[in-house]
């Protein structure tokens, strides 16, 4: 049986920087209010008409990851695309990526696990490689949040948090079972599904009904988040799923060289860091610059940590995520 190993990483962020002060011009908020609650200073938002889409951002990140892996797009055997903001209701963005990268016929699968999407995608790629079914798997996390946020005071609790961007990883076979993805741990708890959600439009409220209502005050078009409940669950589940992975590999928190958490809220990351006794050099955060890019956040942060030399061969790298569903997961990786 093979292991799988990450051999290429890439990221893409739109050029348009939106600061907290920019948002304060649109809604009743302030730089201090946003930083105190989230740690975010600025984020990237797509400018309509400039060509950035969920798929195109994923393609830009993927081209970098594939090149760094020493491969050509035609070497990719499978595409896994994690997003909550696909280009279309259908088809999925994975097949658009395949076309834009000019990859011959191959399987392309969209993964709809929101903030946990990249970790779920990594686990899926790992299993396909371990089974011997595929050799080179491209995993993308990409989000275009800004096109669907409520930039009024009514929506500030959610809209100040999210940014746009994409990250990508190429995984391939690794014969040394002491290297690569050592284990993956995935969970969900559907009873909280609507506590972090976008309810409409949906097949429960389809196009004719929406057009007939024509209600400008209908908030179901925008994401909803029960912030306190999400925070309380996140800090518990983050800690549990990290410890689950370490325990399965007979490791303790002191073995972690780099923790890359989903960039949901800087306060959550700081809580987890303190719980595990990790230093600032052992945890990578970039939410201050990009906000929460959901499925894109871990691959973007992982790419930056690697680019900055914070991840080296032999390091134990832990990825962990929690988000809508509720879903959560972790990956334990020997680099």
Low-confidence stretches: none
Estimated radius of gyration: 19 Å
Strand content: 15-25%
User: How many helical stretches?
Assistant: 11
The chain-level mean pLDDT equals 96
What's the helical proportion of residues?
25-40%
Helix/strand/pairing class, anyone? alpha/beta
Q: What's the architecture of the largest domain in CATH terms?
A: 3-Layer(aba) Sandwich
Q: What is the domain total for the residues?
A: 2
The CATH first-level class of the largest domain comes to Alpha Beta
- Arrangement of strands in the largest sheet: 1-7-6-4-5
Largest β sheet strand count, sense and barrel closure: 5 strands, mixed
* Strands, count: 13
Which short descriptors sum up this protein?
335 residues; alpha/beta; Peroxisomal Thiolase, Chain A, domain 1; 2 domains; five-stranded mixed beta sheet; 22% strand
How is this structure best described in words?
The protein is α/β, with parallel strands linked by helices and 335 residues long. It has two domains: 3-174, Peroxisomal Thiolase, Chain A, domain 1, CATH 3.40.47; 180-334, Thiolase/Chalcone synthase (Peroxisomal Thiolase, Chain A, domain 1, 3-Layer(aba) Sandwich). Helix content is 33%, strand content 22%. It is built from eleven helices and 13 strands. It has helices at 20-24, 31-38, 54-68, 93-100, 117-130, 156-159, 207-213, 227-248, 266-276, 287-290, 297-307, and strands at 3-12, 17-19, 42-44, 78-82, 108-111, 137-143, 165-174, 180-188, 196-197, 224-225, 258-261, 316-323, 327-334. It has a five-stranded mixed sheet, sandwiched between helices. It has a four-stranded mixed sheet with strand order 8-13-12-11, with helices on both faces. A hairpin with a 3-residue loop joins strand 12 (316-323) and strand 13. The chain starts with a strand and ends with a strand. The model has no long low-confidence stretch (mean pLDDT 96).
């Amino acid at each position: 049986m093979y292991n799988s190993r990450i051999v290429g990483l890439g990221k893409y962020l739109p050029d348009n920087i939106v600061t907290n002060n920019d948002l304060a011009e649109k809604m009743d908020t302030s730089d201090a209010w946003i930083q105190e609650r989230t740690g975010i200073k600025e984020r990237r938002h797509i400018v309509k008409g400039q060509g950035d889409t969920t798929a195109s951002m994923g393609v830009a990140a993927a081209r970098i990851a594939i090149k760094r892996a020493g491969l050509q797009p035609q070497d990719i055997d499978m595409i896994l695309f994690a997003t909550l903001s696909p280009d279309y209701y259908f088809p999925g963005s994975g097949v658009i990526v395949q076309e834009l990268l000019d990859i011959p016929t191959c399987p392309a699968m969209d993964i709809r696990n929101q903030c946990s999407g990249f970790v779920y995608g990594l686990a899926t790629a790992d299993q396909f490689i371990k089974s011997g079914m595929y050799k080179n798997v491209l995993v993308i996390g990409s989000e275009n949040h800004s096109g669907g946020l409520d930039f009024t005071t009514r929506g500030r609790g959610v809209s100040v948090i999210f940014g746009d961007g994409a990250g990508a990883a190429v995984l391939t076979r690794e014969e040394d079972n002491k290297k690569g993805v050592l284990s993956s741990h995935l969970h969900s708890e559907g009873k909280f599904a609507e506590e972090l959600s976008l309810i409409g439009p949906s097949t429960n409220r389809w196009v004719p009904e929406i057009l007939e209502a024509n209600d400008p005050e209908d908030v179901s078009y925008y994401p909803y988040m029960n912030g306190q409940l999400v925070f309380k669950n996140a800090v518990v589940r983050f800690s549990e799923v990290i410890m689950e992975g370490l325990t399965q590999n007979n490791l303790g928190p002191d073995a972690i060289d780099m923790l890359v958490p989903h960039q949901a809220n800087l306060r959550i990351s700081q809580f987890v860091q303190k719980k595990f006794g990790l230093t600032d050099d052992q945890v990578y955060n970039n939410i201050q610059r990009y906000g929460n890019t959901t499925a894109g956040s871990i691959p973007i942060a992982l790419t930056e940590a690697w680019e900055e030399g914070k991840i080296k061969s032999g390091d134990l790298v832990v990825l962990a995520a929690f988000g809508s569903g509720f879903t959560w997961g972790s990956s334990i990786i020997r680099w």
